[in-house]
Specification:
280 residues; Rossmann fold; seven-stranded parallel β-sheet; 7 strands
Length: 280
């Protein structure tokens, strides 16, 4: 109890320091971080750009990365409101020109870009014979094109630096197939091919590219699709190896690992983080 209270107070004080101290006081922030909070995965002073950070997995990544000492740039179609972030920016990932602008703003403010997490995405439920060409294109524009334009802009900066981490977000749905998600699952499958191809393309420049494949994560978006959360939890408890719900804070360490120096030997890989929903 005492240890938990001490950690909570330390985190509050650390967050306050991050807000009050100027960028020139980085050494003080780093000392406080090291002295009072020691996460196993260290992102101290790493500049991390996260898309789709307004809620759900993206918001969990922002919270977790900030606790680990990262300088997080949080983005979403509407400007996020994360007090722990270095910057909160409005960024519609379907706007290719905006991708370069956001990366440039990040580098201008923070001096570099160490990690890019392409988390932004949309999902709709439609019968296969009701998906119009516009519906198909809209899904591709956000989930696939948006991830590509952001990663391309980030990779250009990382190539000049000689280092960097790019993480895409797929879905375990591509291993199962969901009847009313043809266009969604197509985008998530394509991201795996993009991961492996881009990893080969930029590996010689010191840039690592990987992909996380989440399972059923308990988010605000999921609740909108599945209002009966109790029934869903029971179904997942029967199907998953680990019966409890997967949360944004619970999956965040996977992203933290892939964005840290501890994963320097990993590139072109897909990490399935789903509590054992799909296991073969």
């Amino acid at each position: 109890m005492i240890a938990a209270t001490r950690q909570a107070v330390s985190l509050a004080l650390y967050a306050n320091l991050r807000l009050r101290l100027s960028p020139e006081c980085a050494e003080i922030r780093a000392y406080f971080f090291k002295a009072y909070f020691h996460p196993m995965i260290d992102l101290n002073q790493k500049v991390c750009l996260v898309t789709g950070a307004g809620e759900g997995i993206g918001a969990g990544i922002v919270r977790g990365f900030a606790r680990r000492g990262a300088r997080v740039v949080a983005t979403d179609i509407q400007t996020p409101q994360h007090a722990e972030a270095e910057m909160n920016l409005a960024y519609n990932v379907s706007d290719a020109a905006r991708a370069s602008q956001v990366v440039e703003e990040t580098v201008r403010r923070c001096g570099r870009l160490d990690a890019f997490v392409a988390n932004a995405g949309v999902m709709t439920r439609q019968r296969w014979d009701e998906i119009s060409p516009d519906d198909w294109r809209d899904m591709m524009r956000v989930n696939l094109d948006g991830a590509w334009h952001g990663a391309q802009a980030a990779a250009r900066v990382m190539k000049e630096q000689g280092s960097g981490k790019i993480v895409f977000v797929s879905s375990v749905e591509i291993l199962m197939g969901v009847a009313d998600h043809c266009h969604y699952d197509a985008t998530k499958a394509a991201l795996i091919g993009l991961t492996r191809s881009l990893a080969h393309a930029v590996g010689k420049d010191g840039v690592r590219v990987n992909c996380v494949m989440p399972g059923a994560v308990q988010t605000e978006g999921e609740a909108r699709f599945f209002p009966d959360q109790e029934s869903l939890a029971q179904t997942l408890a029967e199907r998953q190896c680990l019966p409890h719900r997967l949360t944004p804070d619970g999956i965040e360490p996977v992203f933290a690992f892939l964005c840290s120096s501890e994963s320097d030997c990993i590139s072109g890989q897909v990490i399935c983080a789903d509590h054992g929903l799909v296991h073969w």
